[in-house]
């Protein structure tokens, strides 16, 4: 029989779990919208955002795939964050590799946006506006916004990877059963 005292939940666990739930819900909404809009574009055979968008089908397929991965990441984040509030040991074991996968996903997504989708959008913008200088101004804005988003998106996973390695957090999720070693 195990009579160990329940572990207390460190404040950093509560804070990151709540942030994880909120971010996960927001990410799920964004991923759902992305999936629906890309699926509608594929079904219609053209961009649902109008003829000016003129997206190649491959871009729409990549967008749909990104949205599916985004939804999976958000659902895992929500479930594990809720479990973390109850100090379920599997929550920490899931969120640590989730964090590494999420960071890798965000870097790949940023690269796709910066090297393919962004330049295509700028090209379309310049063609629609007849070579308007706004197209030239858009590149630094898109890159700056993309870098800011990459940093913002990676912040929570980095916090999980760094702050949840502390002895207090590990002990809260997986308390030692010292009573088993007493005579």
Distance between the termini: 14 Å
Q: What fraction of the residues are assigned to beta strands by DSSP?
A: under 5%
The tally of helices reads: 5
Please provide the ordered H/E string of secondary-structure elements.
Answer: HHHHH
**Main structural class:** mainly alpha
C-alpha-based Rg, rounded: 22 Å
Work out the number of β strands. 0
Mean pLDDT value = 82
Low-pLDDT sequence parts: 1-5, 177-183
Shape: elongated
- Sheet of most strands: none
Helix proportion range: over 70%
Detailed description of the structure:
77% of the residues lie in helices and 0% in strands. With 183 residues, the chain is mainly α.
How is this structure best summarized?
The chain has helices at residues 11-44, 57-85, 89-128, 134-163, 167-173.
Keywords:
183 residues, disordered C terminus
Mind sketching the topology for me?
Elements: H1 11-44, H2 57-85, H3 89-128, H4 134-163, H5 167-173
